[in-house]
Amino acid sequence: MSTDLSHLPPSTPEEIRAMTRNAGLDLPEELMQQFIAAWPAFEAMVRRIPRSLDRAVEPARSYRPQRVARV
Amino acid sequence: MEPDYWPGGSSSGAGAAVAAGFVPGAIGTDTGGSIRGPAAVCGIAGLKPTYGRVSRRGVFPNTFTMDHCGPLTRSAEDIALFLQVIAGFDPEDPGSEDAPVPDYAAGLTRSIKGLRLGLVEHWYALGAHPDLPPAMSAAVEVLRGLGAVVEPVELSSLRDYTDCKTTISIAELYAIHEKDLKTRPQDFGRILRNRVLPGALIRAEDYVQALRWRTVLAREQALALKRFDALLTAGALSVADRADPNQPDRLVSSPSITMPFSVGGLPALAIPCGLSRAEGLPLSLQIAAAPMAEPMVLRIAHAFQQATDWHCRHPDLA
């Protein structure tokens, strides 16, 4: 079993448009074209993230109520 | 060093002003290398302190979990003096660490004889500027000559660190800019817009998995720093780019050699260690150590600068 998502095919321009719309973005066509060109490199990065870390590995983000909820 | 070249980013003005001698020191911000990058290509010193060592209060956020403020100066000694002023706990910064602030200048002149330094050579051995590996080898020989024990150490690839950092960053960055990107995307510059927009397509599980991977990568560095007093690598993989607004975005075109210590949240200092032969532009050495071990980083850098004069070379802008 693959431990990341890098085996998936790159999103097509149509899929990128749909994902962008679903995120609530309404980009002018020129900016959309730029984004369609930019996204594949980021998509590849995200897909290389390992998906099979040990269950006990905590995110590197701690919630400290006395600090965060300070009033 | 050369007005036709880009001074790195994003603390570009701070780096250029210090290099040109307009100011003795400046504050920069560093999420993935924005202090160390300008320092490296401008031939000056730039310190990304430990995450939480210097308050981020009032700074426009980029990536909450990786934003740092720190000094850029010409020498490690000036970094120590500058850091003394800005380091410390700030209850208004949720990421601030409530840890004592040592006297950073006090330990500068201690010998580095016997210190164990781990050289992360595989990060710059391939694909870097051709003059960088020889300059790094020369820097290592200087440190060995001062009595340090330098041995190779292998960590995860730059690609791994860059993927982890970038996934976290773009998700947080998009959250900061979402409203503006939805209402006035044309007001962003092309490069910034295309760095921020991908965050819209990052799923919650991608972000959390990247944060969990960060834990794994940070532990890898912590383990290495049980064997070594500090880690050495290059401060940048190349020299300054020519000032050209149409340059490709390096964030996606090549992995970053500053991002590993952003992921680890470790103190990391870039100092000059040579000049390229073809362009005569600065090359840089990066020194990192355990969390809050800024005194160790500064001690090694100061010893190096007492034995070399790369930090004394300044541009003639007249």
Would you write up a description of this structure?
- The complex is a heterodimer of chains A (71) and B (318).
- By secondary structure, chain A is an all-alpha fold.
- Chain A has one domain.
- Chain A contains 3 helices and no strands.
- Chain A is flat and about 45 Å long.
- Chain B is globular.
- The interface between A and B is medium-sized, with 33 and 37 residues.
- The tally of structural domains of chain A comes to 1
* Strands of chain B, total number: 8
Question: What oligomeric state do these chains adopt?
Answer: heterodimer
How many structural units, i.e. domains of chain B? 1
Low-confidence spans of chain A: pLDDT under 50, at least 5 residues?
none
Q: How are the strands ordered across the major sheet of chain B?
A: 1-3-2-7-8-6-4-5
What are its keywords?
heterodimer; A: mainly alpha; 3 helices; B: 318 residues; Amidase signature (AS) enzymes; 8 strands; 38% helix; globular
Produce a short descriptive summary.
Chain A has 71 residues and is mostly helical. Chain A is built from three helices and no strands. Chain A has helices at 13-22, 29-47, 65-68.
Topology:
The complex is a heterodimer of chains A (71) and B (318).
Chain A: H1 13-22, H2 29-47, H3 65-68
Chain B: H1 12-20, E1 25-30, H2 36-42, E2 45-48, E3 68-73, H3 76-86, E4 116-119, H4 132-145, E5 149-152, H5 158-183, H6 190-196, H7 204-227, E6 230-234, H8 250-253, H9 259-264, E7 268-275, E8 282-288, H10 294-307
Parallel strand pairs in B: 4-5, 4-6
Antiparallel strand pairs in B: 1-3, 2-3, 2-7, 6-8, 7-8
